[in-house]
Amino acid sequence: MKKSRLLNSELAYEIAKIGHTAHITLCDAGLPIPKGVKRIDLAVEAGLPSFIGVLNPLLSEMQIEEIILAEEIKEKNPTMLEKILKSFEAAGMDPKVVWVKHEEFKKITKESEVIVRTGECSPYANIILKSGVVF
Q1: CA gyration radius, the chain
Q2: Mean pLDDT value across residues 95-110
Q3: Pairing between strand 96-100 and 64-70?
Q4: Is there a catalytic annotation at residue 20?
């Protein structure tokens, strides 16, 4: 049995094959997922799994050099923003933060290697994780 934290085989596979500067989107239950982008749908019901509950295991497996967030999260969901930033701090990462309008965020998701949908039902709980290198 796999020993590390992330047990979802499909998600672990996508992280293992991602290269430098490629990105993965982690989203709430409501973000539209563009046609042609691979979807890993983890949502079971509202709130399950939570956004942070998926983000933390992802951070244990993936080196992140940059994140993209919607500007609207600052006003509409500051509690989630604080949790996101604390998750990176706990993982020992300090990625560059890029702020964009939500409409632009949705356009950028079309470039993702994969979009991971959670059961999160709070506004703007979405992040694009740009892969870094470990050396």
Answers
A1: 14
A2: 98
A3: parallel
A4: yes
Which pLDDT band, with edges at 50, 70 and 90, does 1 fall under? low
Q: How far apart are CA 52 and CA 84, in angstroms?
A: 7
Q: Convert the chain into a string of H (helix), E (strand) and C (coil).
A: CCCCCCCCHHHHHHHHHCCCCCEEEEECCCCCCCCCCEEEECCCECCECCHHHHHHHHHHHCCEEEEEEECCHHHHCHHHHHHHHHHHHHCCCCCEEEEECHHHHHHHHHHCCEEEECCCCCCCCCEEEEECCCC
Query: In the structure encoding, which two tokens stand for residue 76, read together?
Result: 């509409």
pLDDT in tens, 31-66: 999 999 999 999 999 999 999 999 999 999 999 999
Structure pTM?
A: 0.96
pLDDT band (50, 70, 90) for residue 135: confident
Catalytic-labelled residue, pool 7, 10, 17, 20: 20
Token pair 């309008």 is found at: 101
Q: Which two tokens stand for residue 55?
A: 């983000």
Q: How far apart are CA 112 and CA 88, in angstroms?
A: 20
